[in-house]
Predict the structure.
Amino acid sequence: MEILDICDEFGNPTGKVEDREIIHQEGLLHRTAHVWLLRKKNNQIEILLQKRSDAKDSFPGCYDISSAGHIPAGDGYFKSAKRELKEELGVEIDENELIDCGNRRFHFEEVFHGKLFKDNQISKIFVLWKDLEEKDFVFEDHEVSEVIWMEFEKCYQAVKNDTINHCIYLEELDMIREYLRECQE
């Protein structure tokens, strides 16, 4: 059982909580933290994609955000991002390493494993610079089956043109692209 805060349009907890399963059955607004790992290799910016386990309740077997997760009731974005990195990838960080790229709201409904899944969330989008190799990641909780580094623009085009099996929103890559532009100025 995973208890989450129900939040308002700005991502602030309303004081009401509910089980994650009910939140996704009813499409209640809740919060998540999305962390995109970046590195510079051979003069190129690369982004880390995780491949979701086939057992996941949504988008099984798809390439996704480097690390993402729901924010438990009473927790904040930074704390949850740090915890998810440890749980999903075996990466330990200080919260001050996370670069806040802003919030994004989205809603979708889709059937997975024969059940309707309603997702209505506000996500805090983070960037984290980590120069690690694929072999350095540890998948302890079996949510992730593998990770790959991909050159950022190649990833952007693959998502835009749907040439990889993914559940990545182009709007998040746009946020990262904007962050990278600001870094170069």
In short: The longest strand covers residues 115-129. The CA atoms of residues 5 and 17 lie 4 Å apart. The two ends are 46 Å apart (CA to CA).
